[in-house]
Design a protein that fits this description.
Order of helices and strands: EEEHEEEHEHEHEHHEHHEEHEHEHE
Number of strands: 15
Helix content: 25-40%
Largest sheet: 6 strands, mixed
Distance between the termini: 33 Å
Strand content: 15-25%
Strand order of the largest sheet: 12-11-10-15-13-14
Number of helices: 11
Length: 297
C-alpha cells in the first residue's frame, strides 16, 4: 500500500498492489523514478579491470573518464537471474504482483533471465514484458504502465495494454561520432574512416526490437537533428502527447536546440529531457541524442 500525493486532494491511499519494475536502460530521471514509484534494476558495465552496476556503481561521466584513461570500451551485461530472483522475491513476499518491462530480448539476455527468475519465484504473480526497445523507448512504456496502475487497473489489464503499446513506440538517435561504434565492433575501420571523412552522422532507429541504421545525413549535426524533427513532424497527427522525451549522452547543446522546437510543434505535450545511462553511452558515445515518443495507434 502506497501513500501518494494529489495537489488538489492532498495525501491519499493508493491501494494498488502492482509493482512496476524495469531496468537501468530505461534512462528515466531519478526524479521521475521516485515520483512514479518505479523499481529499477541495473545492468552491468564491465571493463577488463572492474565491473560496475549501471547507474549505481558508475555514472556516465565516470564511464567516459575510464574510457579515456584506459582506451578501452566496456562490455555491457544482462541482469543476472539471481538479481531478478532477489528483487522478485521481495515484492511477491510483500503481497504484490509484479510487472517487469525492460530492454529488448534481441539486444540482451535480460528478458530471458527475467523469465527464468519468474518461473523460480512465482509465475502467477510476475508478468514479464519484452519492451522490444532500449533507453526511453522502454521508459515511455513504463510511464504508461504507471499511469494505468494509478488509474486502478489490475495487473492483467496493465499487461494487456502494455503488450499493445510495444509496437507504438518510435525511437531514433543521431550519433555525433562513429568512434564508439567502431571501438565496439559495430562498424568497420573503413566505414569509420569514410564516415569521418564525409562527416556522416549515423541515425540509429529501433524497429521490431532491433537497432538498425537509418538514413545517414552528411554534414553538421544540425542536419541529423533536423531529420529527426522531420520524422516526428510527419507523425504529428498521431503522436501521443502524454510524454515526448529527448534523451542524450552529454549533448546538452543539441537538447537545447531540439526541445523548444518539439514543444512548439506539440504545445499540449509533456516534453522533457533525460540523460542516457552507461549502457546506451557505451554503445553510441558522447553527443548521441534521440527523440522518443509513442503513437496513438
Amino acid at each position: 500500500m502506497l501513500l501518494r500525493y494529489n495537489y488538489l486532494k492532498g495525501w491519499y491511499l493508493n491501494l494498488s498492489n502492482v509493482t512496476i519494475i524495469t531496468d537501468s536502460t530505461c534512462d528515466l530521471t531519478p526524479e521521475i523514478i521516485k515520483e512514479k514509484n518505479i523499481v529499477v534494476l541495473p545492468l552491468y558495465v564491465n571493463f577488463s579491470f572492474a565491473s560496475y552496476k549501471d547507474g549505481d556503481g558508475i555514472t556516465t561521466d565516470q564511464l567516459y573518464k575510464l574510457v579515456e584513461e584506459h582506451n578501452e570500451l566496456p562490455k555491457t551485461a544482462a541482469i543476472s537471474v539471481a538479481d531478478f530472483i532477489e528483487a522478485f522475491t521481495k515484492y511477491v513476499n510483500d503481497g504484490n504482483e509484479i510487472i517487469y518491462g525492460g530492454i529488448s530480448s534481441a539486444m540482451s539476455r535480460t528478458y530471458e533471465n527475467a523469465l527464468l527468475a519468474a518461473k523460480e519465484v512465482n509465475e502467477e504473480k510476475i508478468h514479464i514484458i519484452d519492451a522490444a526497445n532500449l533507453s526511453t523507448g522502454i521508459g515511455l512504456q513504463i510511464l504508461k504502465a504507471c499511469k494505468y496502475r494509478d488509474e486502478g487497473k489490475s495487473a492483467k489489464e496493465i499487461v494487456e495494454l502494455m503488450n499493445k503499446n510495444v509496437a507504438l513506440v518510435k525511437s531514433q538517435f543521431a550519433i555525433e561520432t562513429m568512434e564508439y561504434l567502431h571501438k565496439g565492433g559495430r562498424c568497420s575501420g573503413i566505414a569509420r574512416f569514410f564516415g569521418s571523412l564525409l562527416k556522416i552522422k549515423p541515425r540509429i532507429v529501433v524497429r521490431d526490437g532491433k537497432m538498425s541504421v537509418g538514413k545517414m545525413p552528411h554534414g553538421k549535426m544540425k542536419v541529423a537533428l533536423d531529420a529527426m524533427l522531420k520524422m516526428i513532424a510527419d507523425d504529428k497527427d498521431n503522436v501521443d502527447l502524454d510524454n515526448i522525451i529527448i534523451t542524450h549522452s552529454k549533448a546538452d547543446s543539441y537538447a537545447d536546440y531540439l526541445i523548444p522546437k518539439v514543444k512548439e510543434m506539440f504545445k499540449e505535450a509533456n516534453v522533457f529531457p533525460t540523460n542516457a545511462g552507461c549502457v546506451i553511452s557505451s554503445h553510441c558515445g558522447k553527443g548521441t541524442i534521440g527523440i522518443l515518443y509513442m503513437l496513438k495507434k
